[in-house]
Amino acid sequence: MVLFFDIVNHYVNNSLILEDKGKLILAGFILVLIYTHAEFFIYLIAFSIGQRILYQYGKWSSIWTIWFLIAISYTFLIITTDYTGRLASPIIVTIVYSLLFFKMNIHEVKFRYQAIFLFQIILAIQWFEISPFMRLIGFGKSVSGQSVIDAAFQLQGDHILQYISILIGMPFIFSVIVTTLLFQINVLRMKELALSQQREIELQEMKIGVMESRASQEMHSLVHDLKTPLTTIQGLISLMQLQLKNTKTKDKAMEYTDRIEQSIQHLNAMISEILYEDAKRPITVKELINYSRANLVEEKLKQEVNFSIEDGDATIIVNRIRIVRVLINLIQNAAEATIHKEDGVINIHISITKAYTHGEKREGVLITVSDNGDGISEENMMRIWDIRYSTKGSSGLGLSFVKKVINSHDGWIKINSKQNMGTTFTLFLPKGSD
């Protein structure tokens, strides 16, 4: 940077020796470019760091960080170059851009647009550094800048330098004002768009909520109606058992009626689990997996499906119907992700372990469902549990239902996915208590 100031001083000396005002004006142009180039990177780095701090620690931490970085940078310039303490233009740039940054939310637009806007402001202000009049109010921040103005007075060309600084500086200031208005309009449009999208999301949620509520009520009524004939059948079985006590074939008949009654009780329990989330009962891990496989119909899957169980005799207390639907949902998702792969594999591993859930370390079952499918993009990972999220044109209730069921069992579920490498769902269910 010192080399560039030497070039400016060279042109200033030549202009005095040759009495050439043109060389002096050229020296002024070079000086403006030096200022703009050096200070643009100072402000760009300071405000980019400030932007990150703004999102993490808040507005005031960001402001103090920006001002501190700028102050340190100018201190370094004063020590190492011919900058002086006349820093009116840096102070103006810092105040103006800080107001735009924090009050008009310039930080919300893309970074490259911020850089262009910042460059315009810095370049506009630098032209006043070569203005003889502006030196009276704190401009002229370098020895080289002051020598340009002094030479202009000696050559009686100070009025020319004044006109040039105004004629070139004012259009840039006008450009800054226009750009500011355009940025403000853009920010307002972005807010309106975000508000419109939020309203659309809320409307979709309401529609989905109504549909889900209606479907739930209809299913609840339908399943509840199943209990009426079951109760009637159970009553008739009891009467038959009383009548058959005195017949010759009572042993065989009683065996049949007992089996019918057990089936009815089993069906009653299943209906209760469908109707009520908190309807839970003990079941071994092996029974849970076998029931899931029975409902899955693995023959219809093209992929290789592997189950591995470390402790099948361990007992957990869960809503069997809902947990089975969770497992089937995750396996079907894995099947969708590997449907185009010839070597598609789905691995389901179940083990008993201890893990923290709701701040407490508890014993339970750890289930992983992994595949070598397409994986999930980072953008979709942010929305994976959203009730509206779906990549298959469905209602998007699948994974939302999964998380809801796991949470109702005081468990947790996590996902790890890489595009084109596969996805792994890991869920933990506490054993529960009677």
What does this structure look like?
This protein is an alpha+beta fold and 434 residues long. It folds into two domains: 199 residues, no CATH class; 150 residues, Heat Shock Protein 90. Helices cover 64% and strands 13% of the residues. The protein contains twelve helices and seven strands. It has a five-stranded mixed beta sheet. β6 and β7 form a beta hairpin. α2 runs antiparallel to α6 and α9 crosses α10. The mean pLDDT is 81.
Query: How many DSSP helices?
Result: 12
Q: Label the structural class.
A: alpha+beta
As laid out across the biggest beta sheet, the strand order is 2-4-5-7-6
Approximately what portion of the residues adopt beta-strand conformation?
5-15%
State mean pLDDT (0 to 100 scale): 81
Counted up, domains total 2
Please write the string of helix (H) and strand (E) elements.
Answer: HHHHHHHHEHEEHEEHHEE
Indicate the radius of gyration in whole angstroms: 38 Å
Distance between the ends: 78 Å
* Fraction of residues in helix: 55-70%
Total strand count, please?
A: 7
Q: Stretches where pLDDT falls below 50 for ≥5 residues?
A: none
Shape: rod-shaped
Main pleated-sheet profile? 5 strands, mixed
